[in-house]
């Protein structure tokens, strides 16, 4: 997302990343990898639960399609870090668009650890929502 943050800003959208990382681990990561948007730690996964993000099973995590998904990311140059002991590798993620009042107007909840919408899909969804509701 970092390399596309300007595109989202140009579309009138702010980015916030929530991670499971502890404050100390997050400071260390951001010291080496500064981001052009806020990144906050949620080691107790309160926000994950509030947004309805579930955990997967080891059966799903170890599916060939998921392993292949990680390999595709690696081949594209995406850095995949090993989890720490505090992180839950079975916790699924998601992407959300909220209006100015904080109401979720669109969501994508991951079915497996590698399932995420692409930048183009997110920008198209944002534009579509804006056409339908200019207040967004």
Going by CATH, what is the homologous superfamily?
Answer: Glutaredoxin
CATH topology: Glutaredoxin
Structural class: alpha+beta
Low-confidence stretches: none
Backbone CA Rg = 16 Å
**Spatial order of strands in the largest sheet:** 1-2
Q: Could you report the average pLDDT, rounded to the nearest whole number?
A: 84
User: Beta fraction of the residues?
Assistant: 5-15%
- Named at the architecture level, the CATH assignment is 3-Layer(aba) Sandwich
Number of distinct helices: 6
How do the SSEs run, as a string of H and E?
Answer: HEHEHHHEEH
Instruction: Give a count of the beta strands, DSSP E runs of length 2 or more.
Output: 4
Would you give an account of this structure?
The mean pLDDT is 84. This protein has helices spanning 5-10, 23-32, 46-50, 58-61, 64-75, 119-132, and strands spanning 17-19, 39-41, 94-98, 104-109. It has 136 residues and is of the alpha+beta class. The longest helix is centred in the last third of the chain and has 14 residues, at 119-132. The chain has one domain: Glutaredoxin, CATH 3.40.30.10. Strand 1, helix 2 (23-32) and strand 2 form a beta-alpha-beta unit. The strands form two sheets. The protein has a two-stranded parallel sheet. A two-stranded antiparallel sheet has the order 3-4.
Describe what is shown at a glance.
The protein is of the alpha+beta class and 136 residues long. The chain has helices at 5-10, 23-32, 46-50, 58-61, 64-75, 119-132; strands spanning 17-19, 39-41, 94-98, 104-109. It has one domain: Glutaredoxin (3-Layer(aba) Sandwich), CATH 3.40.30.
């Amino acid at each position: 997302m970092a390399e596309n943050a300007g595109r989202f800003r140009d579309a009138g959208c702010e980015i916030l990343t929530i991670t499971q990382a502890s404050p100390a681990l997050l400071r260390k990561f951001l010291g080496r990898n500064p981001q052009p948007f806020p990144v906050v730690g949620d080691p107790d996964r309160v926000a994950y639960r509030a947004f309805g993000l579930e955990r997967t099973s080891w059966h799903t995590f170890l599916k060939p399609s998921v392993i292949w998904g990680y390999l595709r990311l690696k081949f594209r140059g995406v850095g995949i870090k090993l989890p720490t002991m505090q992180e839950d590798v079975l916790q699924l993620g998601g992407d959300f668009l909220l209006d100015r009042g904080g109401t979720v107007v669109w969501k994508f909840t991951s079915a497996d650890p590698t399932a995420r919408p692409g930048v183009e899909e997110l920008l198209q969804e944002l534009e579509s929502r804006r056409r339908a509701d200019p207040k967004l």
